[in-house]
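Protocol step 4 of 5: obtain the predicted structure for the target chain.
Materials: sequence only (see below). No template structures provided, no constraints applied. The aim of this step is simply to have a reference model before the mutagenesis design in step 5. Sequence pasted as it appears in the construct record:
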Amino acid sequence: MDDQQNPTTSPGHQPLNPGTTAEQYQRLMQQAQVLLEQAAKLREMERQEVLTDVREKVRMYNITSEEIDGAPRAVRGRKISKQAVLGRYRGPNGETWSGVNIGRKPDWVRKIIAEGGNLEDYLVK
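Step 4 output (structure tokens):
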């Protein structure tokens, strides 16, 4: 039984508490439940600390919910045009794209280009 661990021993090869397998199982399940409850309480305490810290920083830096949600914000005090927010190009199904060449182009843009289409035909006016 070298390759298999005896189910009545712990990983350190020490015998588990005496009793039937069912009793051992019940004790372990109760212990696991207690540990899970303790872990949940600790996580909630940590979560509250994080929320307090985040709220403090939101107030300190005047961060808006729109900024947190990813809405664009003014660059160096300039206002962003509505067109920039909505997208510079509008696809055949109403999709929008800013035209910024950061990352991969949307599928609909790549399809238009691959089919020899003119992207300027999709420019929002």
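Step 4 remarks: The chain has a mean pLDDT of 78. Strands lie at 89-90, 96-97.
Proceed to step 5.
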